[in-house]
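REQUEST FORM: STRUCTURE PREDICTION
Request ID: SP-0412
Submitted by: Lab K.M.
Chain count: 1
Length (residues): 213
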Amino acid sequence: MLGKAGVVRIEQKSFSLGQAGAAVPLRSHQKYADDHGKSNLFLALVPKREVALQAVETGRDIARRYGLSKSPRPHELMHVSLNGIGKYQDFPDDIVFAISAAMATVKAAPFEVNFDRAMSFAGAKAVVLANAIRSEEMMDLHVQLAKEMWAVGLNFTYNPRFMPHMTVFYDETPVPEHMLAEPVRWIAREFVLIRSLIGKSEYEYLDRWPLVD
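STATUS: Completed
RESULT:
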């Protein structure tokens, strides 16, 4: 492991697709018990520390502006989800190994992540930073990651309406879409495999892959 670390939009939905025929027994790890204590695996972009701290401060500004009592998520949890993988009762060593091997074949150049507005995803009760113009580079990476997982027989997520975003906090009260005084942006130079320990607000970075020209 590498460390720990106006308008209301409708909830972003994704599609979880089954195995493609390879021998990785993903479903054998999935239990239908309560999520608490499970591991949630996903691929994501993680901002630099100073950008994550800016996102936290932006979240505080949004909460003050709309009279909300919720605090932003810790800066260590700020990320942009790319592809979900699944929830597991125990640590899935074979799945992590298969993902690491598949992701090593991904080819993509660094690109700018630019979030210039805040809004709510109503169904998820999430207040997020996003951009009205979808990043084609991020969409291409989302598709490529799904294809690589499909190629080795892993479950994967693919969403043709994929909307990159960063969740800053959760609240029942919807936040109207509005422009930020200062965009939250950085150059993405890698993507990471994250294990989220459900119920503990704790992330572990299991592997990472560079984005190179």
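NOTES: The longest strand covers residues 111-121.
Reviewed by: T.R.
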